[in-house]
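Entry 14. Structure prediction run on the chain below.
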Amino acid sequence: MDTAAVTRRLPRRPVRPRRWAVVAVLLVMAALTAGWPLIDSVLADKEPVPSGTVLELGPGGNMAALRVTGAGWRLSKSRSDPDSSYALSRGGVDLVAGYVDLSTGAGAGQLWTGLRRVLSVADQDTRLGGPRPVTSTAGATGLTGALTRENRVGTATVWVPPEQDFAVQITVLAEPDTAPRTVADAMAVARSVAFPQEAS
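Output returned:
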């Protein structure tokens, strides 16, 4: 009888995935399932606005008109209401136009002081410079000044019609690497303000 040692190999046990791997897969699936509606809602919120589009801002007869300059602008539907505000964005630039009711008869100078307070309360990193007179391409008059927020720069502008019963405030903020053409188009939108009731 051969007394040599006999070596037997036990069959290799199938490798079972560790629990953490299964949990990780389930978490990824849950994140994707929950994330798609969020992504979809964000994409659905942005509506393209063609160049040349005229946006009417304000309720009833007290209205201002802004003309969109350049292609690629998108309107945030959740932050926009024709009676009160428009929020536009394009390639690193955010433009917000707001309607202000002047039932107290405040002038542009008082509006500028109020705007500075509102901006500083909303974000302590926001700085609004001193105002200087400005005239829109349609002949409206107002005040404009430099605006900075963290690493973004731009302008704030207040437009008031002769009756001074309402006003339009427009802020433009751009990222440092924003294309000059995009910034120029944003400034063109901000300075396109017209008050149609004045022409009638």
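Residues 3-15, 22-33, 36-42 have pLDDT under 50 and may be disordered.
Filed with the rest of this week's runs.
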